[in-house]
Amino acid sequence: MNRITKLGLAAALIALPSLGLAQEADVTPPNEEIGYILNTFMFLVTGFLVMWMGAGFSMLEAGLVRSKNVAMQSLKNVALFAIAAIMYYLVGYNLMYPGDGWTITNVLGAFSPASMEPVGLADTETDLTYASVGSDFFFQLMFCATTASIVSGTLAERIKLWPFLIFTVILTGLIYPIQASWKWGGGFLDANYGFLDFAGSTVVHSVGGWAALAGALILGPRIGKYKDGKTHPMPGSNLTLATLGTFILWLGWFGFNGGSQLYMDTAGNVADISRIFANTNTAAAGGAIAALILTQLLYKKPDITMVLNGALAGLVSITAEPLTPSLGAATLIGAVGGILVVFAVPFLDKLKIDDVVGAIPVHLICGIWGTLAVCLTNGDATFGGQLISIVIVGVFTFVVSSVVWFILKATMGIRVGEEEEISGLDMAELGMEAYPEFTKG
Description:
The chain is mainly alpha-helical.
C-alpha cells in the first residue's frame, strides 16, 4: 500500500463519524441494562441445566426399575415435565409469586396465568435491576418439575399412568406453588419465622418426598417385595443408566443451586456463584464417599446403588445453604446425607414402605437434614424457625397429597391389577416394551 493510498484511507476513517457510521457501531448498553442482561442470561443457562435434570431422573429411574417397567418410567418423566410446564403457566407462577395479589394475605396467592413482557420490551417500564419475566418463569418452572420427578420414582412398577398424571396436575399447579409462596413468594414462613431455604431442600425436595411418602403408604408395596417377614430385593435393570442419571443430576445441580443466587450483576455475586458451585460439588462427593465406606463396613462389599443415592443425598443436603459453608463444612454436610441414606433405606423396608429408587431417604430425610444444617453455617438461621417451617410444609404437603391420593383411589383406582403388575407396566399400560429384543429372545 503506497503513501497516497494510506492517506486516503486515514481520511476516510476520520470522515466516518460525519456519515453516522461510528454512532451506529457504538451499541454498548447503558450501565443499568448490563446487570439485567447478565441476570437474565444466568437464569436461562442455569434453567436449562435444571431442565436437564429431567433426563437425569429418567435415566436413574429407568436403571433402577426392572426391564418390564422401563418404558413406563420414561413416559412418566416426559409427561410430568410437560404437565408441570403447562400448570405452572396456567396458575403456578402467579400463585407462587403473587406480589400484591394475595387472596389470603401471606398464605394464598393469586389465581391467574403467567404473562411475559411484550416483544422487545416495547412501551414497558421494566425493572432493569433484576431479570426478564420470561427467564425467571423458565428458571422457576424447572424447580416445579423437579418436585414431580421425585414422586415418580418412589411409586414405580405398580401405579397406573393416568392417576399419577392427575396427581401431578394437582402437585405442580397447586401444592408446590402454594407452599413455595410461603418462603420464596414472601409469605408467612419468610415473614414470621425467618425461614431460610436457599435453593429448596424443603421447598422442593422434601415436598416431593412427602408427596411420595403419602402415595407409597396408600399404594402399598410391590407384589413379593415383603414376604414371609423378609425383604426381597428387586434389582434394577441397568446400573449403567442409573449411574449416567446420577451424573446428569449432579451436573444439573450446579444450575439448581448456582442460579438460586438470583443475581450475576456484580463481582461479588459472581464470586458467590463460584463458591456455590464448589460447595455443591464437594457435598456430592462427601455423600458418595460416605456411602461407599459405610456400605463396605456394613455389608463387606460396596453397594453402587447406595453410592449413587449417597451422591444425590449430599446434593440435597447442601441445597438449603450452599453459599455460607466452607468447602470442609460442605463436604461434611454432604457426608452426613450419605450416611443417612444408607441407614434410611433398610429402615423404610422394615416399615414395609416400598420406595423403588430410594427417593424418600434422599429427598425427604436429607431435605430435612439439609434445612436444619443451615443453622451450622448461617448465623441468620434459627433452629426453631427452620424446624417449625419444616413441620408446616410437611404437614400441608402430606395431608393434601393423602387426600388427593385417597380420592383417586376411590374414584378410578391407582394401582394396576396383579396380573398387569407381574407382566410389567410396559405391556399392561403402554402395549410396548423398552427392550423387546431381550424380553422376547
